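User: quick one, sequence for these tokens?
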């Protein structure tokens, strides 16, 4: 479905992801105020707020919003597993596009992922999904890829090392190594679930992120000489039934979900994968990023390994992935991850990413999966 009105990102903000003891409320406030300052507006200018979080109390979103001011605006809690931040952003985009407000804000926050998982747990009948950690699902996927395509552990290590190195220069990333990370260092880390080592697993600290969207008229008034960043596609899909369909379990989900959602986004944006300058994906483990090279149409099926070997997905390569470190390097608190992607894509398209800058970046894609059951894809473009 096409958007009724053009929508632009006018402000983004983050609180550093990591294993720190900053309260969720304080992270929420800092990320939100940073986005408001970046946009050059006050909270009274915001017409709707979509608050995303997985762990915590049901009223945390509206309670924390009071720290910005009591303006009477509608506040909605959004929860969609790892796609929570992406879903909150989509709701804000749809609110502006549909005409209910000229300015909308999406904000998301969460504590450490382990605490989120514990909060979500409850009495239930044991299933494969409740007895296997996410690392096991990704390990199954990786071993299958190795069997079918001859993918090596070195390929997975190169992807992880790339993301660690991208995160080194992102001040909001959880993992900021003092030295360059090599594939050999990644492979030497303790094994989590073969073939993935601890340095291949996503960071699981706390964090917060926010983004503000608005109409073109508002964006132009506030631009102050900066490039405008337009949302040219916003698509979300849940699973499609197919004959013989088997739900592959939480986390992974059907591969076709990404392919279908991405194709809808390309159609809405009027472009294709060859037009992208950078990409963000749900790269909780390297196997995901590798598979998404193909599912997003960046390369033909079975040729993702070649992209890694060529260095094509590193900053400076043909199509950089996870330019802020991704889930592996930047971290994955759950709720705010999708908005952290929007923060980075927006910065890249404005040309404000410093040593991580993708030269000439004009179009970026942000992809997130939510518990293997929903897929969200946004495409942003500098205009």
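Assistant:
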């Amino acid at each position: 479905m096409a958007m009724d009105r053009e929508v632009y990102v006018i402000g983004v903000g983050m609180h550093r992801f990591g294993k720190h003891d900053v309260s969720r409320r304080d992270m929420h406030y800092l990320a939100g105020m940073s986005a408001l300052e970046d946009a050059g507006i006050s909270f009274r200018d915001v017409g709707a707020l979509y608050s995303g979080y997985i762990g915590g109390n049901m009223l945390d979103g509206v309670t924390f919003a009071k720290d910005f001011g009591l303006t009477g605006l509608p506040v909605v809690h959004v929860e969609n597993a790892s796609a929570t931040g992406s879903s909150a952003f989509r709701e804000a985009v749809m609110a502006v596009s549909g005409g209910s407000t000229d300015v909308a804000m999406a904000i998301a926050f969460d504590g450490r992922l382990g605490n989120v998982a514990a909060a979500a747990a409850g009495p239930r009948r044991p299933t494969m999904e409740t007895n296997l950690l996410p690392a096991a699902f990704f390990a199954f996927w990786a071993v299958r890829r190795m069997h079918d395509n001859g993918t090596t552990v070195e390929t997975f290590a190169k992807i992880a090392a790339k993301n660690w190195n991208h995160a080194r220069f992102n001040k909001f990333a959880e993992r900021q190594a003092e030295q360059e990370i090599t594939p050999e260092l990644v492979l030497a880390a303790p094994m989590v679930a073969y073939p993935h080592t601890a340095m291949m697993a996503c960071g699981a600290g706390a964090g917060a992120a926010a983004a503000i969207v608005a109409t073109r008229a508002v964006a132009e008034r506030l631009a102050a000489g900066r490039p405008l960043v337009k949302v040219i596609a916003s698509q979300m899909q849940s699973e499609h039934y197919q004959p013989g369909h088997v739900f592959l379990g939480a986390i992974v989900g059907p591969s076709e979900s990404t392919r279908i959602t991405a194709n809808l986004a390309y159609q809405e944006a009027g472009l294709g994968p060859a037009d992208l300058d950078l990409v963000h994906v749900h790269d909780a483990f390297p196997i995901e990023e590798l598979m998404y090279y193909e599912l997003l149409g960046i390369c033909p099926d079975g040729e993702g390994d070649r992209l890694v070997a060529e260095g094509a997905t590193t900053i400076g390569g043909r199509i950089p992935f996870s330019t802020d470190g991704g889930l592996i390097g930047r971290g994955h608190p759950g709720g705010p991850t999708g908005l952290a992607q929007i923060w980075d894509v927006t910065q890249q398209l404005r040309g404000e990413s410093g040593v991580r800058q993708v030269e000439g970046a004009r179009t970026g894609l942000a992809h997130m999966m939510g518990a293997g059951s929903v897929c969200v894809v946004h495409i942003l473009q500098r205009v």
